[in-house]
Amino acid sequence: MWCNSTSITLSFLQTTTQHSQLSNGVGRNSVQIVPLRRLAVEAAATTRREDRTARHIRIRKKVEGTPERPRLCVFRSNKHIYAQVIDDTKMHTLASASTMQKPISEEFDYSSGPTIDVAKRVGEAIAKACLEKGIEKVAFDRGGYPYHGRIEALADAAREHGLQF
């Protein structure tokens, strides 16, 4: 269930026991429920995009691209998938591949968006581009996305075609 923010009011109840006398002199216990206090809780909901961005920031604190081992960064949208190999010390993109490039885009039908087969083809293309430039080892940055589906397919295809990570 997705909502922006929700305000919830809770009432805490306290039970008290009272002793009352019946007309025949026999006592009886009764339980009375009395409101004790009210507590308002503000719950802020986040979107899936905000959650992914937060994961990506946490990952970027740990994964860094160097000249010897650049970072393979993956971005996934509803229509395309992109992969870049980045040297973070110089802030240079060393190689890139995406479904926007002609050889890949002409090969597949995008009526339903990128599929696992398309992601595999992008993984092959990024591996080939890296090996041409002498890059064999990379640090994989999944961009906050779960390692599943298209992200996993891209990574596996890049590994199969010679990249080590």
Automatic annotation (TrEMBL):
<keyword id="KW-0694">RNA-binding</keyword>
<dbReference type="InterPro" id="IPR004389">
    <property type="entry name" value="Ribosomal_uL18_bac-type"/>
</dbReference>
<dbReference type="GO" id="GO:0019843">
    <property type="term" value="F:rRNA binding"/>
</dbReference>
<dbReference type="Pfam" id="PF00861">
    <property type="entry name" value="Ribosomal_L18p"/>
</dbReference>
<dbReference type="GO" id="GO:0005737">
    <property type="term" value="C:cytoplasm"/>
</dbReference>
<comment type="similarity">
    <text>Belongs to the universal ribosomal protein uL18 family.</text>
</comment>
<keyword id="KW-0699">rRNA-binding</keyword>
<dbReference type="InterPro" id="IPR005484">
    <property type="entry name" value="Ribosomal_uL18_bac/plant/anim"/>
</dbReference>
<keyword id="KW-0687">Ribonucleoprotein</keyword>
<dbReference type="InterPro" id="IPR057268">
    <property type="entry name" value="Ribosomal_L18"/>
</dbReference>
<protein>
    <recommendedName>
        <fullName>Large ribosomal subunit protein uL18c</fullName>
    </recommendedName>
</protein>
<keyword id="KW-0689">Ribosomal protein</keyword>
<dbReference type="GO" id="GO:1990904">
    <property type="term" value="C:ribonucleoprotein complex"/>
</dbReference>
<dbReference type="GO" id="GO:0005840">
    <property type="term" value="C:ribosome"/>
</dbReference>
